[in-house]
Design brief:
The complex is a heterotrimer.
Chain A (H helix, E strand, L loop, with lengths): L1 H28 L16 H7 L2 H33 L3 H16 L2 H14 L6 H26 L2 H9 L4 H30 L2 H6 L7 H10 L4 H28 L1
Helix pairs in contact in A: 1-11, 2-11, 3-6, 3-8, 3-10, 4-6, 6-8, 7-8, 8-11
Chain B lengths: L3 E12 L2 E12 L3 E5 L6 H9 L6 E6 L2 E2 L10 E4 L11 H11 L4 H14 L15 H13 L5 E5 L7 H18 L2 E6 L2 H7 L2 E6 L2 E6 L1 H6 L4 H6 L4 E10 L3 E5 L8 E5 L9 E6 L5 E3 L9 E12 L3 E9 L2 E8 L13 E6 L4 E5 L1
Parallel strand pairs in B: 3-8, 3-9, 6-7, 7-8
Antiparallel strand pairs in B: 1-2, 1-4, 4-5, 9-10, 11-12, 11-14, 12-13, 14-20, 15-19, 16-17, 16-19, 17-18
Helix pairs in contact in B: 2-3, 2-4, 3-4
Chain C lengths: L1 H19 L2 E2 L5 E2 L5 H5 L3 H34 L2 H16 L2 H12 L4 H9 L12 H26 L2 H9 L4 H12 L1 H16 L3 H6 L7 H11 L3 H25 L3 H6 L2
Antiparallel strand pairs in C: 1-2
Helix pairs in contact in C: 1-13, 3-7, 3-10, 4-7, 5-7, 7-10, 8-9, 10-13, 12-13
Classes of the chains: A mainly alpha, B alpha+beta, C mainly alpha.
C-alpha cells in the first residue's frame, strides 16, 4: 500500500501544481519590468499603477460591484424564501420546483445568455445594467435556494416543534429558531452569489448594453487585444480578491462555530 | 509450534505521541476462542488491526502459524476480520459479499458457489442470499460479516466488538451461537470486546488489556476468581475496595486489619498464594456478594461490619444500596429484590454488612 | 420566486423555442413564419464538424478531469481530517478565481513568445517557437484546467461519505489494490463520478470563453457558433435552433450517463 500511497500523493501534487503554476506565473510576471519579454527583466510596480489610472476599468469595477450587490440581495431574498417555502409544499410539487430550480444550472450558460438577450429585445427592454442584474439573479436564485435548502434539510424539525410547544407563533419559531440556524448557510450562499456575479462573463456578455460594461467584460476586451502586463497585474489583484473572499467566508463560518 | 496460531512478540505501536500498544507479547493457541477484554482506548482494536495488517508495528513481530507477517500486506495474510461496523459492501448482494474473498483468490466457479452457500447455511441466511445488506437487520448483517470471513477458511478469524451494535437480547443469543459456530469450524477466533460478561461466556481464554498492555491472561474462571491486579479486579466487577494489612495467616484463610474501619476488627478472607504477615494489601469485594441484615448477626457469614445506608436505588429485579462503613469508605451492595419487607432497608438505617471469606480477593500492593 | 423564474427564465426559453421555428427578417429581425429550415440547416457539414469537435473536446475534457481528479479527491478524503480542509481550500481557490483570468494564464504561457516555447527551446526540444495557442490542444488544456475543481468536489463528497472499513474489508478479503479500486471503491463512489462528469461535461460542451481565447477561428465550438450567429451574423432563428440542439446534446449526454448507470438507485439505498 505504501507504494500505492506514494503514487497517489505524487499524482495529487502534480494535479495541484497544474492548478497553481499558471496562476503563480501570471502573478510573478505582473512585476516584470519588460512589456513584451517572457524573461525576467527586473521588478516593477508600474503595471499596477497604470491600472489605477485606467478610467474605463474603474467605471467597470463600479458597475460590477453595483450589479453584484443588487443581484445578490434580490437573489438572497428570493432564494431563501423559495427554500423555506418548498418545505411547506407537498412532496410531488416539491419535486417539480426542485427540478425547475436545477434547470438554470444544467443548461449551458451561453444558452441562458442568448435566451435572455432575445427576451429583452422582444419585450423592448433596453440592454443596460438592469438587464444584466436580472440575468445574474436568474442564475443566483437557484444557488442560494439549493445551499439554504441543503442546510434546512439537515435541521432537526423537532427544534421548530419545540419552539411551537413552548408557545411561539409559527413566525416567531421561524424568526428565533430556524433563521438563526440557517444563517451560516445563508452567509455562504451570499458570498457565493456575490462572487459568481462579480465573475460572470457569459450572461453579462449577452445582456449588457452600451455603458454597462462590467469588470469581466472589460477584462475580456483587454485580453482580446492581446497579452499585456497590465492584465497580469489585474489578474493578480483578482486572484487576491477571491482568496480574500474565501478567507472571509472561512472566518465567518468559524465564528459561527 | 503447531499448536500456536498467532504469536505477538514485543509488539509496539505509536499513535502520534501515545503508545497505543505497549510492548505486548501474547500467544494464541490453535482452535481456541481467545478474547481481548478491556475498556475503550486500551489498544485492543489497534492490536487487532496490527494482526490484520492494516497498521504496521513500530516494533516487534507478528507470527501467524509460525510465519512472520512483517512484509505481508493484509490481502496476503491468512486472517479475516469481522469489522465492528460489519463493512459489508453495500453494492453487492449477500451472496456476492460472502463470495468476494473466494473470488479474489480465484477459487473455481463451482467450488465458490458451494462454499459460499455452505457458509450462508451455517449462519442460517440461505434464504436471503440475493438481498442487499441495507435490506437486512443488524443481526443478519452481523451474520453475513461472519460468513464472509469464515468462508475463506482462514487460519484466524478476528472479531472487532462483534456484538457491539446489537441489542441486549440478540447479543445474548449471538454469544452462544458464535461460540457454537467457532467450535463447529475449529478455526482460531480472536475477539476484541469491552463487555466482560461476553468475553467470559464465549472464550476459552481471556486477556485483559489496559493502556496498551496485557495485564492478565487466563481462563475465564481464573480471571474472574483470581484477578492479579487491581485494574483487572475492578474491570470484572470487584468494585468495593479497602486498604489493609495481613494480621494472621491460617491454612486457607488469613485475617486482615483495616485502619479505615477500626470497628470491623479483623476480616477473614481467602489466603492468596505467597501471602506474608504484615504485608499491605487491598481487599476487593463484589457488590452482589454482600449481604445486608437488620442488626442481627446471621451466623453463616464469616464477616459482619456495621454500616449506615446512604442511598437506595430500585431497579426492579434488584435493590442497590450505597452503604457507608466509615467517613472514607463507601461501598456498593446489590441485593435481589425478594419482595419481602424484612429484606428492605431505608436511608439512614444502621445495618450489618456481611460476607464470606470466599467472596473477596486480596491483592498485595 | 416562482413568478420571477417564470418570467425571466422559463418565458425566455419559450420565446427562444418559438423563434427557432421562425424565419429570419431582412435586417436581422425575426419573421413569424413557421418552418423547420433552421433545424434542417444544422445538418450542414460545416456545423456538424463544429458539433463533432465540441462533443469530442467535452468528452476528452471529462475523461482527463476524471483521471486527474480521482486520485486527488481520494488522497484528500484519506488525509488526516485537519489537513482535508487545507487541501480542499487549495482546490477551491482556483475555483473561485475568475475564469477569464485562469484562461488568460494559459494564453500567457502558451503564446508564441510565451514561457512554454522558451522552456521547450531551452530544453532543446524545438529550435524555433511553434504556435501552441489557437489549437484544439490549447482548448483542451484550458477546459481541463477550468473544470477540474468541478470534478474533485463531488468526488471528494462521495469518498468522504464512504466508510473506510469497507475498503479495508476488501483488502482483508485478499483483494489486490486494483481489485479494491475496481470492485469496491469505484462502484461505491459512482454517484460522485456521475455528478462530477455531468458538472464538467455540461460547461465544456457549451464552453465559450476557452475556445474564444485559446482556440482560433478554425477551432470554433458550439458556444462560439451560437454567439457568432446572434451577434455577428444576426441570424436569431438559426442561433436559437443551434441553442436548442445544444441543449438536446447536453440532455442526451446526461441521460446516457444515467442509462448506463441504471443501478444507481440501488447504490444509494445501500450503506
Amino acid at each position: 500500500m505504501s507504494r500505492g500511497r506514494i503514487w497517489l500523493l505524487s499524482a495529487s501534487l502534480v494535479n495541484l501544481l497544474f492548478l497553481y503554476l499558471p496562476i503563480a506565473v501570471l502573478i510573478l510576471f505582473s512585476f516584470n519590468a519588460s512589456r513584451l519579454s517572457a524573461t525576467w527583466q527586473g521588478f516593477t510596480f508600474r503595471w499596477y499603477l497604470a491600472l489605477v489610472e485606467d478610467q474605463a476599468l474603474l467605471a467597470a469595477v463600479h458597475n460590477s460591484l453595483l450589479v453584484a450587490a443588487v443581484s445578490t440581495s434580490l437573489a438572497t431574498i428570493l432564494g431563501v424564501s423559495a427554500a423555506v417555502g418548498m418545505e411547506r409544499l407537498s412532496s410531488r410539487r416539491r419535486r417539480i420546483v426542485e427540478g425547475a430550480l436545477l434547470l438554470p444550472l444544467v443548461i449551458p450558460e451561453v444558452m441562458l445568455g442568448v435566451a435572455l438577450l432575445l427576451f429583452f429585445v422582444m419585450v423592448e427592454l433596453p440592454l443596460s445594467l438592469v438587464t444584466v442584474t436580472i440575468g445574474h439573479v436568474v442564475w443566483n436564485v437557484p444557488i442560494v435556494a439549493i445551499i439554504t435548502r441543503a442546510r434546512l434539510q439537515k435541521l432537526d424539525p423537532r427544534l421548530e416543534e419545540a419552539a411551537l410547544d413552548l408557545g411561539a407563533t409559527p413566525w416567531q419559531a421561524f424568526r428565533r429558531v430556524t433563521l438563526p440556524l440557517l444563517t451560516p448557510a445563508i452567509i455562504g450562499a451570499v458570498l457565493m452569489a456575490f462572487t459568481l456575479s462579480l465573475d460572470d462573463f457569459i450572461v453579462t456578455f449577452f445582456t449588457a448594453g452600451p455603458g454597462s460594461t462590467t469588470l469581466p467584460l472589460q477584462v475580456y476586451s483587454m485580453v482580446k487585444s492581446g497579452v499585456s502586463p497590465e492584465i497580469n497585474a489585474l489578474s493578480a489583484i483578482l486572484v487576491l480578491i477571491s482568496m480574500a473572499l474565501i478567507g472571509l467566508s472561512l472566518v465567518l463560518q468559524r465564528q459561527r462555530n | 509450534m503447531a499448536d500456536t496460531s498467532v504469536e505477538l512478540r514485543d509488539l509496539a505501536k505509536y499513535h502520534g505521541a501515545t503508545l497505543a500498544v505497549d510492548h505486548l507479547s501474547l500467544e494464541v493457541r490453535s482452535g481456541e476462542f481467545f478474547s481481548i477484554l478491556g475498556p475503550s482506548g486500551a489498544g485492543k482494536t489497534t492490536t487487532l488491526r496490527l494482526v490484520a495488517g492494516f497498521e504496521r508495528p513500530d516494533q516487534g513481530e507478528i507470527l501467524i502459524e509460525g510465519r512472520s507477517m512483517r512484509h505481508v500486506p493484509p490481502n496476503l495474510r491468512p486472517v479475516n476480520l469481522v469489522f465492528q461496523t460489519y463493512a459489508l459492501f453495500p453494492h453487492m448482494t449477500v451472496f456476492d459479499n460472502v463470495a468476494f474473498g473466494l473470488e479474489m483468490r480465484r477459487v473455481s466457479r463451482s467450488d465458490l458457489r458451494s462454499r459460499a452457500s455452505a457458509a450462508l447455511d451455517m449462519v442460517k441466511l440461505s434464504d436471503k442470499h440475493d438481498r442487499h445488506p441495507s435490506q437486512l437487520s443488524g443481526g443478519e448483517q452481523q451474520r453475513v460479516a461472519l460468513a464472509r470471513a469464515l468462508v475463506n477458511r482462514p487460519a484466524v478469524v478476528l472479531l472487532d466488538e462483534p456484538l457491539g451494535a446489537l441489542d441486549q437480547q440478540l447479543r445474548q443469543e449471538m454469544q452462544v451461537e458464535l461460540k457454537a459456530i467457532q467450535k463447529q469450524v475449529g478455526i482460531t477466533f480472536i475477539c476484541v470486546t469491552h463487555h466482560q460478561e461476553e468475553a467470559l461466556i464465549m472464550s476459552d481464554r481471556v486477556a485483559v488489556m489496559d493502556h496498551g498492555r496485557v495485564l492478565q491472561v487466563g481462563s475465564p474462571q481464573e480471571v474472574y476468581e483470581s484477578p492479579t491486579t487491581e485494574f483487572v479486579a475492578r474491570f470484572i466487577g470487584l468494585s468495593n475496595h479497602l486498604k489493609g494489612r495481613i494480621a494472621t495467616l491460617h491454612d486457607t484463610t488469613c485475617t486482615i486489619t483495616a485502619p479505615d474501619i477500626p470497628a470491623a476488627g479483623s476480616i477473614l478472607i481467602r489466603r492468596p498464594p505467597g501471602a506474608m504477615e504484615a504485608t499491605r494489601v487491598m481487599l476487593l469485594l463484589r457488590p452482589e456478594r454482600l449481604h445486608l441484615s437488620h442488626n442481627v448477626h446471621p451466623g453463616r457469614f464469616h464477616n459482619a461490619v456495621s454500616a449506615r445506608v446512604d442511598k437506595v436505588t430500585y431497579t426492579g429485579n434488584e435493590m442497590q444500596y450505597l452503604v457507608r462503613l466509615s467517613d472514607s469508605v463507601l461501598w456498593k451492595a446489590r441485593l435481589p429484590n425478594s419482595g419481602a419487607s424484612q429484606d428492605r432497608f431505608r436511608v439512614g438505617e444502621t445495618v450489618l454488612l456481611c460476607w464470606n471469606a470466599d467472596d473477596g480477593v486480596i491483592l498485595t500492593e | 420566486m416562482l413568478l420571477w423564474m417564470g418570467i425571466f427564465f422559463i418565458l425566455p426559453l419559450l420565446v427562444m423555442l418559438a423563434v427557432s421555428f421562425a424565419g429570419r427578417g431582412t435586417y436581422g429581425g425575426v419573421e413569424w413564419t413557421f418552418s423547420l429550415t433552421n433545424y434542417a440547416q444544422l445538418f450542414d457539414p460545416l456545423y456538424l464538424r463544429i458539433y463533432g469537435r465540441s462533443l469530442a473536446l467535452a468528452l476528452a475534457t471529462t475523461t482527463l478531469c476524471l483521471l486527474l481528479g480521482y486520485p486527488l479527491a481520494y488522497s484528500i478524503a484519506r488525509a488526516p481530517v485537519r489537513w482535508q480542509g487545507v487541501w480542499l481550500l487549495l482546490v477551491m481557490i482556483p475555483f473561485w478565481t475568475n475564469f477569464l483570468v485562469r484562461t488568460y494564464a494559459w494564453m500567457f504561457i502558451l503564446r508564441t513568445e510565451g514561457l512554454m516555447n522558451q522552456l521547450l527551446i531551452n530544453l532543446g526540444v524545438i529550435s524555433q517557437p511553434i504556435e501552441l495557442l489557437y489549437s484544439d490542444w490549447a482548448i483542451l488544456i484550458g477546459l481541463v484546467y477550468g473544470y477540474v475543481p468541478f470534478m474533485v468536489l463531488p468526488l471528494y463528497a462521495a469518498m468522504e461519505r464512504l466508510d473506510s472499513s469497507v475498503v479495508e474489508a476488501a483488502w482483508d478479503l485478499y483483494a489486490t489494490s486494483w481489485s479494491v479500486f475496481w470492485r469496491v471503491l469505484l462502484p461505491l463512489t459512482k454517484p460522485g463520478v456521475v455528478a462530477g462528469c455531468i458538472l464538467v461535461f455540461i460547461p465544456s460542451l457549451g464552453a465559450f470563453i476557452t475556445p474564444d481565447l485559446l482556440g482560433g477561428a478554425k477551432s470554433m465550438m458550439v458556444g462560439n457558433l451560437i454567439q457568432h450567429e446572434y451577434l455577428v451574423v444576426r441570424d436569431w432563428p438559426l442561433g436559437s435552433a443551434i441553442s436548442f440542439s445544444l441543449m438536446a446534446l447536453v440532455l442526451l449526454g446526461v441521460l446516457a450517463y444515467f442509462k448506463t448507470d441504471g443501478r444507481l438507485d440501488r447504490f444509494e439505498g445501500g450503506g
